[in-house]
Structures are given as C-alpha cells and as structure tokens.
Specification:
Length: 126
C-alpha cells in the first residue's frame, strides 16, 4: 500500500505555502507558466491544475513541462469537467486531461477521474 499523503485544496495556487510541502495540492488555477512559478516554490507530492481550455500554444498547461523539468509531478483536469478557480470542484469532478512525466511515473493517466485516482495512490483526505 502506498504511503498516505494529505490533500490541500487551494482555489488559487498563489496561496501555496511551505507548510503544504509533500501534499497533493489541488488547485482551481490554470496550469500555465505563471501558476507553475508559484508551484515551483513549494515541492509537493502532486500539483493539480485546470487545463483552462488549453489555449493558444497550449498556454493553459505550459507549466506542467516547467514543473516536470524540476521533477515535480503535475496534472491538469479538463475545463469541461471542473470549474476553473474551484479546487473543491476539481477534486470532486475533475477528469485528468494532461499529465507530465513525473506524474505518469506515479501512475496518473489521462482520462482518469481525479478523486478515485488520488485514493488509489494513497491520498488521506484528513
């Protein structure tokens, strides 16, 4: 059985703080470069973003690659599955649409609903 980890729900990744380190941080934020800059400051088990419709040049998920370069696992859920800006909806309804390599190594896959996937990985809703 995998080691348990806490879930932290943040409507905005800008609220991430050092005490969240090691948790799965579920955000309502887009997965762009500006969001990844906040995430890069606090290492976590996993970051979850919204793909925000992906956008021009895949701007809505560009941060996943930046985080991957640091070995930080990150995924995005489809904007059609969860409300942007609402971490609770991301957790309850999100379906994974993008996965970086570090997240794939943890067993996260495109098309999976987020909540049961986190439970399978050992999330402790605490």
């Amino acid at each position: 059985m995998p080691a348990a980890f806490q879930l932290v729900l943040l409507d905005s990744v800008a609220a991430v703080a050092p005490e969240h380190a090691g948790s799965a941080i579920i955000t309502g934020s887009h997965g762009g470069l500006s969001a990844a800059a906040y995430a890069a400051q606090v290492p976590a088990r996993l970051y979850v973003f919204n793909d925000a419709g992906v956008g021009k040049g895949e701007a809505g998920v560009a941060g996943l690659a930046l985080l991957d370069a640091q070995g930080q696992a990150a995924v995005a859920v489809a904007h059609t599955s969860a409300r942007i800006g609402e971490a609770g909806d991301t957790l309850a309804c999100g379906v994974i649409s993008r996965v970086n390599r570090a997240a794939a190594a943890l067993g996260l896959r495109v098309g999976e609903p987020l909540r049961p996937t986190l439970a399978r990985l050992g999330a402790d809703p605490g």
